[in-house]
């Protein structure tokens, strides 16, 4: 497992100096220092702090104390540190970073291999000037090699931030994370998620109760993810009629990443992909490409922008006037192939600004349909299994394969096949990106045999043809997000249709289907109009299904308002028209301000209803939510009023909800609880409902620390907390807020980046320092105080504190250890000491800190060297 949190964080080479140490030493060390203003040094340069040695007196041997190492802050000791690396603000991963002494500074010294890992393309570097060659094995600061390059090492966060001009970077997609940093999580861990609800309904003296419990169990073993889900329901019929109980196992499967193939292997129960064929449930084996493994900038469809720069130039890409990408390119041909997918927002306007001020512009057509892929991108699946349908006696075994490939900017080819003993289907299609919009066109052929005699022939074959269109009209900004039409001949069957017919069921065989979604923004921020609709008819049914809706929506300074009108025609030939007016009004400007909502609906049958509701959240973490409503309905001359309320509360262990409503002699009540138990190497930790990937935080002694990634989650008494959901294959920042921690614990790390694999249970360790906060006053054998600014080192040579005026040192968690104070090099310039906690007093309880004196013996100095690094 790749652990992105080093347990020795802030202890590599030296411990980070804590700002609290400096503050406390200033408060508790007595009188303020004084000095002759005329003796003060000249003002330091920006970013530096210079100390006047005259303020601090002399050492025990009469020499001035050397404080130059503090002129530029808390500089680390030269050595190798495990740190998070960021390139142009994007997280690259955790790597070993070497710091070396360069004159008066300690700076990152990077090898050629390290710079190549950062993305530096050495072939693009100038042969002379600011750049200097880096031979194999040697290292140099980044700015000495890459003109315009910058680097900054943050010791307190163990983070290296690097800025590299785009023109010197190797082509690499934005957001790319090397698979070596994909964390498979704990080699052995598991969970049990649950959702339990009870519901009671009463009307006219009769009552009915229902109980429902669903569970999802998982076990991760060496990269394999084993999953099982099921549900138990029970219905109490009331009136002495007894009860009905049923249990259904939903699915069971094992899954594993196929990293090199950017795919998932699934064995057991799953769903077939829905990109080309209708999705069905099956039990078998499947290999399917996983788009989540690609950087976000390579997901979906976006064209490659190609052009030529005559000089070093700035390339800007805009869509509807919004800047979506900008970079600097060297003279010659350039290619931009990592644009984010915004296919429904219109064509790309590209501007090339040369270094001499000359500007060139051109347009790249950009519209998208679901089947379009980027050039050279591919999407595939291959499976073998048996159709799952508990209502069928005979289910077919089948093979299915699909493949999509982006051929160039304008063309994607795709196809697939399903093969069973008595059923076959073949599909071929093409998708196009053109100046007049994006199209996809495909055709499918199906053949079925051995069907039972009855309402259809024993052999059936047919074809299905489909056209899809998408386009944003730039003149009016009218957006046809989806316009699709499919026509099927009489004998065409999908796999599920064949299985139902094979069992004697009646199937409505679709003849044609039309679908349209249009969005039209109005000028002057006047809102937007929308239109959605679909219509379909069948070969073996006279009636059609038709539904369409048109409406208007607008956001206002005080809330939002919308109106819609729709019409439906169902399979029985009955038509109905519906109207809906709704508005929403926030009662305040804070994030937890209540929301007042109102709606009014009516239809062509003279049915009318109105509802008023008030909802909001409460709590510091917004983990409590509520909703109160009242409604009135008029149906066929009769009217009824009702009202109710619901609440939900989430904490670290579970989410709880309750609701009650009633009106006109009926009432309903419900209670629910959902959550999980997570089994990990450190024990068992309760959690909220879990996502696909999640993390277990270990922060010993940090009970009460708030997890920043989940509402209501805090570290429990055992030192664990569960972050219930993380995005797989993406850099997720997990944070802990130390607010509320006791005085006897300190978090050495408050945030960490992790890239989980799908389904992984990641263990994240947040190191803590436990122990009574102490102010220790050091005294030499002759009674003199230790010089101000002396370093306090532990037995490994790690710096743990600084000595303040009067010999005071702020320490925590070092009780009983062999420590030493060092104020220079050579014999007689360091001393060793131990200290013990004093009895707890009322003064200690009030201040949170204990004070004790400790003799510091030069003769007992441990043989440790602060420069020992790690």
TrEMBL record:
MF GO annotations: fimbrial usher porin activity
Bilayer topology annotation: Multi-pass membrane protein
Domain PapC-like C-terminal: 775-839
Pfam families: PapC_C (PF13953), PapC_N (PF13954), Usher (PF00577)
UniProt-listed InterPro entries: Fimb_usher, FimD_plug_dom, PapC-like_C, PapC-like_C_sf, PapC_N, PapC_N_sf
GO biological process: one example: pilus assembly
Signal peptide: 1-34
Domain of life: Bacteria
Nuclease as UniProt keyword: no
Protein family: Belongs to the fimbrial export usher family.
The protein's name in its UniProt record: Fimbrial biogenesis outer membrane usher protein
Originating organism: Chromobacterium paludis
């Amino acid at each position: 497992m790749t652990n992105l949190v080093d347990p020795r964080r802030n202890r590599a080479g030296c411990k980070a100096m804590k700002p609290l140490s400096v503050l406390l030493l200033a408060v508790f060390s007595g009188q303020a220092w004084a000095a002759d203003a005329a003796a003060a040094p000249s003002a330091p340069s920006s970013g530096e702090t210079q100390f006047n040695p005259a303020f601090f007196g002399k050492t025990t041997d009469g020499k001035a104390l050397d404080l130059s190492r503090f002129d530029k802050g808390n500089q680390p000791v030269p050595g190798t540190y495990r740190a998070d690396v960021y390139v142009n603000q994007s997280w690259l991963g955790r790597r070993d970073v070497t710091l070396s002494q360069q004159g008066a500074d300690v700076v990152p010294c990077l090898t050629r291999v390290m710079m190549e890992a950062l993305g530096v393309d050495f072939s693009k570097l100038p042969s002379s000037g600011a750049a200097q060659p880096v031979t194999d094995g040697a290292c140099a600061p980044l700015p000495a090699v890459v003109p315009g390059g910058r680097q900054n090492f943050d010791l307190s966060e163990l983070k290296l931030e690097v800025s590299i001009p785009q023109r010197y970077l190797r082509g690499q997609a934005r957001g790319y994370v090397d698979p070596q940093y994909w964390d498979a999580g704990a080699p052995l861990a598991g969970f049990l998620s649950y959702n339990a609800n009870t519901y009671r309904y009463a009307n006219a003296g009769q009552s009915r109760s229902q109980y429902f419990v669903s569970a999802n169990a998982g076990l991760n073993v060496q990269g394999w993810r084993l999953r099982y889900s099921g549900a138990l329901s029970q219905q109490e019929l009331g009136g002495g009629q007894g009860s009905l109980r049923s249990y259904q196992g939903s699915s069971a499967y094992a899954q594993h990443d196929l990293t090199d193939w950017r795919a998932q292997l699934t064995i057991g129960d799953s769903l077939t992909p829905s990109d080309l064929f209708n999705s069905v449930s099956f039990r078998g084996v499947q290999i399917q490409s996983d788009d989540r493994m690609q950087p976000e900038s390579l997901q979906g469809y976006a064209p490659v922008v190609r052009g030529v720069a005559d000089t070093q130039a700035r390339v800007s890409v805009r869509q509807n006037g919004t800047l979506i990408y900008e970079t600097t390119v060297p003279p010659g041909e350039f290619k931009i192939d990592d644009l984010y997918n915004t296919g429904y927002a219109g064509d790309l306007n590209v501007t090339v600004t040369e270094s001499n001020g000359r500007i060139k512009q051109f347009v790249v057509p950009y519209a998208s349909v679901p089947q379009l892929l980027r050039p050279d991108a591919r999407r595939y699946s291959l499976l073998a299994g048996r159709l799952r349908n508990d209502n069928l006696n005979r289910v077919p075994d089948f093979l299915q394969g699909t493949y999509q490939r982006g051929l160039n900017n304008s063309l994607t080819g795709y196809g697939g096949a399903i093969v069973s003993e008595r059923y076959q289907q073949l599909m071929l299609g093409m998708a196009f990106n053109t100046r007049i919009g994006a199209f996809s066109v495909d055709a499918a052929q199906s053949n079925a045999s051995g069907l039972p005699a009855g309402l259809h022939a024993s052999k059936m074959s047919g074809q299905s043809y489909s056209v899809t269109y998408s386009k944003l009209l730039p003149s009016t900004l009218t957006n046809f997000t989806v316009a699709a039409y499919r026509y099927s001949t009489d004998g065409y069957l999908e796999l599920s249709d064949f299985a139902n017919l094979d069992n004697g069921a009646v199937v409505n065989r679709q003849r044609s289907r039309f679908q349209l979604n249009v969005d039209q923004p109005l000028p002057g921020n006047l809102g937007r109009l929308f239109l959605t609709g679909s219509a379909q008819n069948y070969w073996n049914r006279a009636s059609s299904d038709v539904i369409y809706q048109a409406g208007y929506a607008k956001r206002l300074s005080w809330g939002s308002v919308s109106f819609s009108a729709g019409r439906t025609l169902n399979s029985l030939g009955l038509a109905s028209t519906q109207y809906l007016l709704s508005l929403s009004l926030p009662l305040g400007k804070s994030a937890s301000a209540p929301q007042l909502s109102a709606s009014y609906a009516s239809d062509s049958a003279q049915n009318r209803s109105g509802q008023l509701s008030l909802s909001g959240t409460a709590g510091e973490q917004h983990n409590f939510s509520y909703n109160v409503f009242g409604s009135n309905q008029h149906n066929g001359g009769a009217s009824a009023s009702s009202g109710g309320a619901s609440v939900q509360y989430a904490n670290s262990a579970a989410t709880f909800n309750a609701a009650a409503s009633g009106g006109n002699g009926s009432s309903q009540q419900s209670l629910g609880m959902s959550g999980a138990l997570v089994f990990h190497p450190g024990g068992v930790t309760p959690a909220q409902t879990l996502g696909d990937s999640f993390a277990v935080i270990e922060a010993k002694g940090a009970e009460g620390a708030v997890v920043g990634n989940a509402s209501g989650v805090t570290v429990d008494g055992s030192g664990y907390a569960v972050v219930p959901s993380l995005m797989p294959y993406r850099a997720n920042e997990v944070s802990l807020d130390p607010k509320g921690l006791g005085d006897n614990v300190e978090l050495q790390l408050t945030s960490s980046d992790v890239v989980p694999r799908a389904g992984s249970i990641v263990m994240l360790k947040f190191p803590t320092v436990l122990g009574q906060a102490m102010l220790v006053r050091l005294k030499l054998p002759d009674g003199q105080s230790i010089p101000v600014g002396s370093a306090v080192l532990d037995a490994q040579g790690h710096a743990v504190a600084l000595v303040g005026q009067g010999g005071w040192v702020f320490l925590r968690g070092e009780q009983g250890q062999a420590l030493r104070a060092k104020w220079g090099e050579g014999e007689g310039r360091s001393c060793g000491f131990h200290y013990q906690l004093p009895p707890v007093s009322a003064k200690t309880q009030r201040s949170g800190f204990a004070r004790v004196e400790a003799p510091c013996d030069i003769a007992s100095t441990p043989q440790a060297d602060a420069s020992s690094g790690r």
